């Protein structure tokens, strides 16, 4: 009887489509470079790729197998800690991948989620892209959820983010990207206009402890930046002009650098004559969540009583705001 049952299950397995057993993924990969390599499969979490698995490439072929609770964005690279691997959406299905690192291209078949991702990817950065329309058509897909947290969340205010979040199916509530959006919404509520600015303490360039509360009684401009951030560097002249113009304004620079010499060199190079602090943890700093920072430069204007008055994602226009509170 036991052997009969095995035979029946084997026959059923031949007759059922592969999707009936889609509780695992299998990547059948081809690498254009036929040389011996180790290839790394990394999962995109939040602003970073984390290695999940590795495989040996033999005669240009490699494979991975595993299981996912939901489709997620992954990357492939022969560089162990690559910050920009070739990305694709992986789901529990047989997936074929062709990777050409020299030409920075990847072709994927077998993943319906990736098909939607690849279809939308060329347009998502274009001005006027309607993410709300994509969500309306695909409310149960993680692809628009990924685009929301990765491409759009940094530029949206609390209300805009809440409206888009509410359009997703409740089936996605426990998925990674919607959890990240929900966490961001909670953080944004805590640093909304009118809220008390969360206090923090970091070390300055002389390794002395500096707290935001040290500036109580003054208007404070808290500017989040980093030496590696091109937009931050381009807007430094605006901050310097503001620093020279408003003598009663305290400026507190909070760097998301990891490398101390790079941080100090940028301060010297741009002659930044105001207080600078950093925990040298990059985007891993707890201040990214404490102040809901997803883009730099970001600046908060804080009242002498410690209330948030204004938030800016660019320094242009900040002078006019300051004029309404301070006299030059």
Automatic annotation (TrEMBL):
Signal peptide span: 1-22
Name the SUPFAM superfamilies on file: Thioredoxin-like
Looking at the record, the residues that make up the Thioredoxin domain are 191-328
Q: Which domain of life is it from?
A: Bacteria
> Does the UniProt entry include the keyword Nucleotidyltransferase?
no
Q: Tell me the compartments it is located in.
A: Cell envelope
Q: Which UniProt keywords apply?
A: Cytochrome c-type biogenesis, Disulfide bond, Redox-active center, Signal
Q: Does the keyword Disulfide bond apply?
A: yes
Q: Which Gene3D superfamilies match?
A: Glutaredoxin
Coarse class of the primary localization is other
Which PROSITE patterns does the annotation name?
Answer: THIOREDOXIN_2
The protein, known as: AhpC/TSA family protein
**What taxonomic ancestry is recorded?**
Bacteria, Pseudomonadati, Bacteroidota, Bacteroidia, Bacteroidales
